[in-house]
Amino acid sequence: MLKSYIVLLTILGCVPKLHGIRFHLTPNGRKCLKEDMQANQLVKGEYEVSDVPGQIVNYVVRDSKGHILSQKERITKGKFSFTAEVYETYEICFTSRGGANQPGANHEVSLITKKGIEAKRSDALGEAAKLKPIEADLKRLEVLSDSIVLDFELMRKREEEMRDTNEKTNSRVLIYSVFSICCLLGLATWQVLYLRRFFRIKKLID
């Protein structure tokens, strides 16, 4: 029992915690990052933008249909969060604005995003910090088990989608095959009748 408990804690420590990226944003430039998101998935982000005199940076989060999920102007450091209702591709865009007559300088942008169980896990770790060691470990195991259940659920859903796609493809291939055979039989019958008529006109056959 104790050995299994230690193994689970080790696995928990190996679970990826976050996704971070750092990039430079040119003056009056725009940079967007895209990522797929599952239905009912929580996304949390934390950003930090270097200060450049005379320039400001805004950010906006949109889905593929253009709906704004989160936005803020004149950012320096902060957080955002949102939840997608359906499977969707979202993008977060950072835009730099500055004076037209100023040479400007690049902003250094740091972005850390967490989604799904990773975002919930960060909340659980914050709660676990206030608990006793054994309670904190149990809390982490609870989050890990939720993550495993969610992964299996997503795998089952994808398997169902792939099976439905295969069944539809098989039915379409069958219909196409039957249609092709019917066309070939019709063409062959027409050729036989045409040649028979042609040979009769030429009096090559009775």
Automatic annotation (TrEMBL):
Predominant cellular place of this UniProt entry's protein: membrane
Keywords: Developmental protein, Membrane, Signal, Transmembrane, Transmembrane helix
Protein topology in the membrane: Single-pass type I membrane protein
Signal peptide region: 1-20
Classification of source organism: Eukaryota, Metazoa, Ecdysozoa, Arthropoda, Hexapoda
Gene name of this polypeptide: Dmoj\GI15674
All copies of domain GOLD, residue ranges: 30-154
TM spans (from-to): 173-195
Keyword RNA-binding listed: no
Cellular component GO terms, alphabetical: membrane
Recorded family membership: Belongs to the EMP24/GP25L family.
A family per Pfam: EMP24_GP25L
Compartment list: Membrane
Source taxon at top rank: Eukaryota
The protein, known as: GOLD domain-containing protein
